[in-house]
Amino acid sequence: MTQDTPDERRPVLRLKPKANVAAIKRGSPWVFDNELVMDRRSKAIAPGTIATLEDAERYPLATVAVNPASRIVARVLDRDPAAEVNADWLTARVRKALGLRTALYDAPYYRLIHAEADGFPGVIVDRFGDTLVVQPNAAWAETHLDLLAQALLAETGAVTVLKNGGGRGRALEGLDDADAVLCGTAPDAPLPVVMNGATYMADLTGGQKTGLFYDQRDNHAFAARLARGARVLDVFSHVGGFALAALAQGATHALAVDGSAPALALATEGAARMGAAERFETRQGDAFATLEALAAEDAAYDLVVCDPPAFAPAKPALEKGLRAYERVARLAAPLVAQDGYLVLCSCSHAVDLAAFTGACLRGIGRAGRRAQLIHTGFAGPDHPLLPQLAESGYLKALVFRL
User: Fold this and answer.
1) Where would I find the S-adenosylmethionine-dependent methyltransferase domain in this sequence (predicted)?
2) What digits encode the pLDDT tens for the residues 319-329?
3) Based on the domain organization, do 168 and 98 belong to the same domain?
């Protein structure tokens, strides 16, 4: 088949006359239901089916994955409308993604596949040495899961592939939340992962998301540079994210705050493994209440970090999310010692950098503090950004000197 001769056996989706064809040609990976002719035949296409996308004049544009049950009815898999999404196609994409990561990292601990930015719409794969954790958050990935697992094993040399069904996007795609062992044997204990000199314990079967957040690696490193000889407060700490990185760089003491007792237990184990148990402390509880309690105790820290979950996971929650980020900044700022540092993070893709910065500055101002913005951080390079999809640039980290 050639570029212009798609497989006639495949279903066809057709764009409406006013659809933004130019955006698709420039690389936009999503096509929404209101952009397509959703007749009875289109609505009957089984979720996960591979189809050909045509413009209103019936000219083939791309190979897409279809899910009529989702608002994102079509996800662009290949600009070639005749592409065959088979074992060879999947293997080539995995090889391309792996090449970037092996160029970036000496050890096999990273995000191997970052969804649309790596040409795998809706698919996340995190690597933990010989174990890979897959989040197939789109119907097409679920239907191709066995082939994907085999391609991952063949290219990486890993021995175990786990499916994590807890991704938020799976419900929107009409998928279940079941986890599974696709290949190999699931680890029977959390795995140690060394980053920035710190040891993190990743629970691949019972932990949050895939077990560890690789996206903050570079931001951990920057903040840790400010933590030498410092007292550190890490709020929404999960398994010790910023706190353990700070201890690895010479922080005198770190307090990790999180609502999850299992996450804090993993953080404590990580601190012990890196020989920093005596400098590490945890406090379980609601982050906002804990910030208020620490203020009542007249606590002060040289470095305060707040890395909350997504307060605005989608546009309808934007205003509420911005108020939450402002509140975090307002409660955290009084705990920062004079000339200390405050790190505020957002993983909400619906909140852009300007809006997030504004919310943080309002909160700091309401706390009566004056701030210098000294650094703006984003996700690490194993989480590449697809310029045509703003959602792929979800993470922001602002470092202020107060």
Assistant:
1) 188-401
2) 999 999 999 99
3) yes
